[in-house]
Amino acid sequence: MSIFSCSAILFDLDGVLCDSTRAVDREWREWAARKGVDGDAIMAIAHGVRTVEVIRRVAPHLDAEAEAAAIESHEAIDHRGVVVMPGAIELVKSIPNGRWGVVTSGTRPLATNRLQYCGLTVPEVLVTSDDVTNGKPHPEPYLQGAERLGLRPAECLVIEDAPAGIQSARAGGMKVIGLASTYGVGKLADADAVAQGLAGVRVTMNGTGRLLVEVH
Questions:
Q1: What are the start and end residues of each CATH 3.40.50.1000 domain in the chain?
Q2: Which residue in 89, 96, 160, 171 is deepest, having the highest Cβ count within 10 Å?
Q3: Domain 21-77 coded CATH 3.90.1150.100
Q4: Residue 162, exposed/middle/buried by CB under 10 A (0-12, 13-18, 19+)?
Q5: Which tens digits make up the pLDDT trace of 174-215?
Q6: Mean pLDDT of the chain
Q7: Do strands 193-195 and 8-11 pair parallel, antiparallel, or not at all (unpaired)?
């Protein structure tokens, strides 16, 4: 068991609070087929990375901004295969208001719709691809999350499922719990601890008002 002390928790969204792996795979592969792009090459890099950056890498000949807008607009209303991650609702409810947020590589409409569809509260602190210049693995998204919480980065703990997100949080000076949902444990080696699922993460308050996070 690992134990962390922090002032707040920042969650990634897809693969952490919402299980959207099938939806993401379907959306990308349908787009790849239409555009004549290698779907496997996309899926090798897509998780945890902003859509526009994936397109720039796999299809530099296309208008990345326009293509990303079209993909994400459709994703925001297509919930086929999207479900809440086991333990997500219970875990979030155990954290006091104002002590958690979401940092995602998706757009604000996509994130808001998925949270609501999965029965999760849309937190006051929600950092999306619309809010940053540099996406994960750059530290900007998580640094912005800490700033919006009014905390130093070192006071925040991150829960992530993707290597790009783990790199982002670590580069920002934060401890990270890796969630073995999208990737196997071997791909999460840079995390400070790894949980097989959110049911293995427990949050309580200590006597000084800090959060104690146990990872089993």
A1: 2-20+82-215
A2: 160
A3: no
A4: buried
A5: 999 999 999 999 999 999 999 999 999 999 998 788 999 999
A6: 96
A7: unpaired
* Distance between CA atoms of residues 49 and 114, nearest Å: 17
Across 87-103, b (16+ Cβ under 10 Å) vs e yields bbbebbeebeeebbbbb
The DSSP line for 43-100 is: HTT-TTS-HHHHHHHH-TTS-HHHHHHHHHHHHHH--TT-EEPTTHHHHHHTSPTTSE
Beta bridge partners of 10: 101, 158
Mean pLDDT of 11-18: 98
* Domain ranges in the chain with CATH number 1.10.150.240: 21-77
Share of the chain above pLDDT 90, in %: 92
What the block records as the tokens of 62 is 């296309």
Place of tokens 């691809």: 129
Judge contact between 102 and 10, C-beta under 8 A: yes
Q: pLDDT tens digits for 52-85?
A: 999 999 999 999 999 999 999 998 888 999 999 9
Residue 207, CB-side half-sphere exposure with 13 Å CA sphere: 0
Euclidean distance between CA atoms 141 and 131, whole angstroms: 8
Residues labelled catalytic? 12, 14
Q: Tell me, what's the pLDDT at 83?
A: 97
What is the predicted pLDDT for the residue at 207?
79
